Structures are given as C-alpha cells and as structure tokens.
Amino acid sequence: MNTRPIVAVILVILGVAALGYSGIAFTTPGEAVDFRGLRVLQHPHHHFIPQVFGALALVGGGIILLFVKPKQGW
What we know:
It is built from 2 helices and 4 strands, in the order αββββα. α1 (4-20) packs antiparallel against α2 (51-67). By secondary structure, it is α+β, with helices and mostly antiparallel strands. It has one domain (4-67). Strands 1-4 form a two-stranded antiparallel ribbon.
C-alpha cells in the first residue's frame, strides 16, 4: 500500500484543524528531577502550533494529493 495518500490526508486534516481552531495548543508533562532524595517535578511545557503551519500542512497535503502520481504496477 502506498503511504503518500495517507500522509497527504493526515496533513490536510491537521491543516484544517489548525486553521479551524486558530492554531493547536497542547501541553507536555514536565520531567521529574531527583535532588538529594527529594523528587521535584518541573512545570509542564505548553506548546502552540500557529495557523501558518496549519496552512502549510493543508497546502502540502493538497499538493501531494493532486500532483504526485502513485506508483504503478505490482
């Protein structure tokens, strides 16, 4: 099975989601630090993917779907 169409569809879906929600925000947990037997948790990291990258993903996925020919034959 060819993976290009799958990647293209995923890019289009992520691009539409990023544009529809004014960007995508997510949080990753902080790492635990052991200091002399005391376990200290760092604050979680907040990440934001702006709409520009959503538009680029949408355009890139569309280009892959429209212009890249799938491989022929078995």
